[in-house]
Known about the structure:
25 strands, 4-stranded antiparallel sheet, 322 residues, mainly beta
Amino acid sequence: MTHRILILALILSCFNLSCKENRGKVNANDVEGTQTDSPKNEAELERRTVKNDSFPDLGPSFSPDGSEIAFYSYINSEWNVSRIYLMNSDGTEVRELTGKDTLGFHTEPIWSPNGKTIAYTNFQEEGARMMSIDRNGDNLKKLVSVSENGFHMFSAWDPDGDGYYFFHWPAGEGFKPDAYHAIGDQVTRLTTDGITNRPQVAANGTLYLSKIIDLEKNLYSKHILDRNSGKVTKVSNLEGWFIVGNHVIKQKDHDQGTTFILEDLEGNDIKELGTVPYKSVMFGKTDPEVNYVAYNTSFDDGSEIHLLEIATGKLIKLTQNE
């Protein structure tokens, strides 16, 4: 399996798992059930900034204080090199963060709880390593490794920021991931089944794991791991992918586009956050105060980063690739 296929598989795993058919842009004039004041066509999207290239932008992630958004963007026409960028949450002051890390494909920036550090994964010709860098672009570090030339993918910080969770799979054995935890140089393996990825920690300290049911069909199940007892409990109702604080964002594709739904940690729907006129959007996440949902559109729709303002339904385009 090539690196590009592996990366694409990981990106695809962020799509809504229940509705993957009929992809593509939806005519916003046909959208029903959107919140009041939602724009009626794409031309009315509020635009905040335009990047200096037309390459895909993905993986928006709000800082803990909500003031900035980290994301990654391709930097060449072959789509095999990417870097981490920062911008203000209103889309202004876009700047490259990982200019000192000149190798590989940088993906999925994840803020530390104190907002001072960003971790990310760097896919290279052989394997993938985990890196961290300060918010100002200084103090670039390589994080722990489990195996030489193995694939390591950063997934979550401890709530106190002292340690972090990641998943790893050995080179040459296909995608057979397991979850790990690290503090400094001390690494603890959490699973041994070869089907566990993306460990995430809720604000209340609960550790969630995703387990592969069918990789080709992009089917996963969510589980809680009690690190004290080792007990694993399946959370059958939890459908969303990314945990933010003590809630989860679920995405539902339908004829009118994508609806974002707020779930609690047991998988109960709390409320609908709004609908956007695009299908197969990726990386839907809220800011800490749950005022906005940040997401990127699909590759077919230019892979741009947008905000949905929850109170009004307004769509705000933060990057533009045309």
